[in-house]
Amino acid sequence: MRTVPTSGVPHPLADASGDAVVTESRSPVVFLTQGRVSLLAAARDAGRPVILATDEHSVLTPAFAEVWREAGAAWVVREAGGTLREGFTGRALPTVESVLTATPARTLDDVSARFLRPTAATAVELAAVLSVRHRARDTTLLGAAAERLAEAAEAPLTGWGPHEPVGLPWDRDGMTAFLRGRMPIDAAVVVTGPGTAGTVTARRTGQGVEEITRLVLSAGVPTSTAFEGRLAAMTQALAGLAATAMPLAGMLLARPGRVDLCLPPLLPLPPTPLALLIGPPGVKDLALDTARMTAEFGAIVVGRPRIPGLLFPLGRLGEPTWLRLDAILGTVDRGLLDRALGRTADLLRSAARPDTEQGGDTRVG
């Protein structure tokens, strides 16, 4: 029987509540359920961090992993021998609560050997992260980016909801109304389809409404015609958004992963960036020379002629795409990039960073 604590943050899913709220799970798959969403909200209101504790056999859905990390919550894994590690980074821990205070891993000796076990990939995960700026109008309709990218990958969205499992059929009007009703605070929903999972987040900014789309798709094997076709179609869809919307920035990445798209408590293979989009606001604020970018980096001018964006194809899996990305961003001052893209610069860095470098320096920018 679960014991509900009488101090700290009383909640049915809180197994311990003091300076931090610990919630235990032995589920094979940890979903972003309504109960876990409400636990995050209760802990936030009380000013307490949340720690999920699982064994080595639990995996996280993409939506849970994303929302959990965005909320500043932690994941601790109990190994078979009783030792502890951080689920996202593999950092060895002396206690569950130390996940909130322990210093980042500096050497391999700071990381659990079990975290470093190779895991066989069952599919290539093709991921998209994109930020679009909208005017704060009653007629603004969200969800176009997620819809177009999923359709381009031949994995159309079929459902959405504020938690998992999603219970509503895909409907941009209903999703927009839900997100609008929670402003001015940031709000996110889960979106799904066959072989597709992700989130759409809306936040108010000084320039209007920023819509952040994160999708991950099971895209088959990288040498298949189907994979190449999906990548090409998603790249084209990314470029097409600059003609009908105001994207700030976006990126397509791929990595060997799982067919169910879930995140195990093991070291993931690093992502490979495949395409970068800098939208019209970034091109303008960074004073990018479109002719130079085209000549030096093979950029494609997208969007409207008076307010162009730039799409940079970076290459294919197995190619040194990191070097190409570093070369492109090396022409831009880091401070200017952060000022031009704001929180979107952090979004791209978090999408591309290796999981073992959380909180440290990143390669993007």
Explain how this protein is built.
With 365 residues, this protein is α+β, with helices and mostly antiparallel strands. Helix content is 28%, strand content 28%. It contains 10 helices and 18 strands. It has helices spanning 34-46, 62-70, 144-152, 172-181, 225-244, 280-285, 290-297, 321-329, 334-341, 343-352, and strands at 16-17, 21-24, 29-30, 50-55, 59-60, 74-78, 84-86, 92-93, 123-134, 159-161, 168-169, 187-193, 196-205, 208-218, 246-257, 272-278, 300-304, 307-313. A hairpin with a 2-residue loop joins β17 (300-304) and β18. The longest helix is centred in the middle third of the chain and has 20 residues, at 225-244. The chain is globular and about 60 Å long.
Number of helices in the DSSP assignment? 10
Strand content: 25-35%
Mass-distribution shape: globular
Q: How do the helices and strands follow one another from N- to C-terminus?
A: EEEHEEHEEEEHEEHEEEHEEHHEEHHH
Strand order of the largest sheet: 11-10-12-13-14-9-15-16-18-17
Mean of all residue-level pLDDT scores: 87
**Main β-sheet, in a few words?**
10 strands, antiparallel
How many strand elements? 18
List low-pLDDT spans.
1-7, 354-365
